[in-house]
Amino acid sequence: MDFNATKLFIAVVNAGSFSAASDRTGVPIATISRKVNELEQGLNVLLLERSRQGVKPTYKGQQFFEQARLGIELLEDAQKSVTSAHTLQGKLRLSVPPNFSLWWDLLIEFQQQYPDITVFCHSGERVVDLFADGIDVALRLGDLNTDDVIAKPLITLNTLFVASPELLAHYDTPETLTEMARLPVAAWESLNQGLFEWNSGTEQVKYKPVFSSNNLQGLMHYALRGKAVVELLDFSARPWLESGELVQLLPHLPPKKVTLHQVYARHKYPSALVRAYLEFCTKWVKNLR
Question: HSE of 70 in the Cβ direction (CA atoms, 13 Å)?
């Protein structure tokens, strides 16, 4: 069986089309198509269903994809281990939530420790498809509603309410969620989700934001300009609290906790690069506590 043809077949399935696989691998479309055809002929099995919308694996093709990918990755790891003077080399494809500034320092330190690993980091609101988008590890916040991935809890973050001293000069400092709801509020909202409700113990308060966005910088701007109360993750608010530009509100309330997960494909044995990254992240976040 042709090793390179199998690698190209895996690339096509991951990309969803011959053209997308060509863009990712740098191999001409005609070459990819020919090699996949030769692989199918050698196995005497139709691996891909082709259409104008792209390609998808047949039932046999999916079976071959899942088993061959593990073998290919193990072979590539073995090859790198004997040809790279025991240094990890390759490209790591990651996904992080938007505006997640905490991770930029981590990635810089990771690449300082592993200088031969290049990193592509997708940052956006859309939940990526680990297979279709070719992502090795995704960072996700909150509850996960999927059985298709392995999700390892990494750290629990707290949220807190903040406002500028200028805003509080125009309003009495709130002592309860109900009182805070009377102040102007800027809140997170995506195209498909916006829940404007606070909960703490038996207190449940609905509020109407004067401004909402899926852009953290926009929310921060409203807070710093004295225009609104904002709920932030603690690490995002910390520099502004230390400088005095923002003040924490309702510090006596129990914080809302958000779990940060590292997510990778369930049916994909983690490569040496992925294992190194996961281990590095685990050690790095311990120093934050």
Answer: 10
Q: How confident is the model at residue 126 (pLDDT cuts 50, 70, 90)?
A: confident
Residue that the structure tokens 């077949």 belong to:
9
CATH number assigned to the domain comprising residue 271: 3.40.190.10
Q: Could you please report the per-residue DSSP string of 132-166?
A: TTT-SEEEEES----SSEEEEEEEEEEEEEEE-HH
- Work out the average pLDDT over 203-221: 90
Residue type, 157: L
54 & 131 share domain = no
Domain that residue 211 falls in: 157-258
Residue 178's contacts (CB-CB under 8 Å, 6 or more residues apart) are 203, 205
**pLDDT score, position 80:** 62
Q: Quick one: 77 and 94 in the same domain?
A: no
